[in-house]
Amino acid sequence: MGKVIKAFIFDLDGVITDTAELHYRAWQKMADDEGYFFNREVNERLRGVSRRASLEIILDGKVIPEEKMLALMEKKNNDYKTLLETITSDDILPGMYDLLIELRARGIKIALASASRNAVPILRKLGIYDMFDAIGDGNSVVRAKPEPDVFVHAAGQLRIAVEDSLVVEDAEAGVKGAVDCGMMSIGIGPDERVGAADIVYPEPGDINLESVIDYYKA
Ligand code: BG6
Ligand code: MG
Fold first, then answer.
1. Is residue 96 over pLDDT 90?
2. Which of 7, 49, 203, 209 could serve as 53's disulfide partner, Cβ 3.0–4.6 Å?
3. 11 CA distance to ligand 2 centroid (A)?
4. Is the peptide bond before 146 cis (omega within 30 degrees of 0)?
5. Is residue 1 pLDDT above 80, yes or no?
6. Which atom of ligand 1 is nearest to 138's Cα?
7. Quick one: which of 176, 172, 119 has its CA closest to 151?
8. Which residue ranges have their beta carbon within 6 Å of ligand 1?
9. Are 122 and 85 in contact, with CB atoms under 8 Å apart?
10. What is the reported pTM?
11. What is the per-residue pLDDT across 12-30, written as a single tens digit (0 to 9) for each?
């Protein structure tokens, strides 16, 4: 392929930290309080999906007034933010801090591309905000994943071409966005979910930078 990776663009939830569990608990509380059906299986479908789209999935076709939608999203987000207060650098997923250090040492740029509007405070609480050269989050673009906008935004901030950028994603929607805009891609999780990525690893800590570089160089 003869490709050189100039930037790593990371998803946040499920890649750098496991906030997916906290999102789940906050949505479960909202659903229980409102009497909506929700469980971990439904929660799987919320991976990488925006706050509003997540609520629509939980509503499962039920139509409620816009004011109520907004109130439920705000309530979930407040509960989620309370859960986030407990986060520390211990919540960085295994291997990810070392990977960031390795990338910096090699001069490869680092960016975030998350659907979350809480991404910046989360990176600060994890103590790794300063390691990122660019941030794309839920406030940066209008069209959420699976559209590629947040990835293109992140690469643009880095001034690096999309084809020289590699995305690390745990969500089907995120992998689709990355592939659709011509970026290299690593999927984290089962093939059924992220098999469209160039390279798939079960866990973020399994990423082997040397072999990823060799894969694209070959
Ligand atoms: C994504 C998560 O990163 O961000 C989703 O995977 C979440 O589960 C989305 O819904 C939006 O996050 P937030 O923090 O803006 O509600
Ligand atoms: Mg994710």
1. yes
2. 49
3. 5
4. yes
5. no
6. 15
7. 176
8. 12-13, 23, 46-51, 54, 77, 114-118, 138
9. no
10. 0.94
11. 999 999 998 999 999 999 9
Residue bearing tokens 């990338």: 103
CA of 136 to the centre of ligand 2 (A): 13
How many whole angstroms separate alpha carbon 151 and alpha carbon 172? 14
State whether residue 203 is helix, strand or coil: coil
Active site residues: 11, 13
Task: Give the residue, out of 76, 116, 143, 151, with the most ligand 1 atoms within 8 A of its beta carbon, to mutate for a pocket test.
Answer: 116
Note whether 84 and 90 are within 8 A (CB). Answer: no
Structure tokens at 204: 């973020």
Give the tokens for residue 72: 């439920």
Per-residue model confidence (pLDDT) at position 20: 86
Report which residue type is found at 8: F
Quick one: which ligand is closest to 84's CA? 1
Asked if pLDDT for residue 47 goes beyond 90, the answer is no
The beta strands (E) that lie in 98-140 are given as 109-113, 134-136
Which residue type is seen at 206? D
Atom of ligand 1 nearest to the CA of 12: 3
List, as ranges, residues with CB under 5 A of the ion ligand 2: 11, 13-14, 48, 170-171
Whole-number Å distance between alpha carbons of 73 and 54: 9
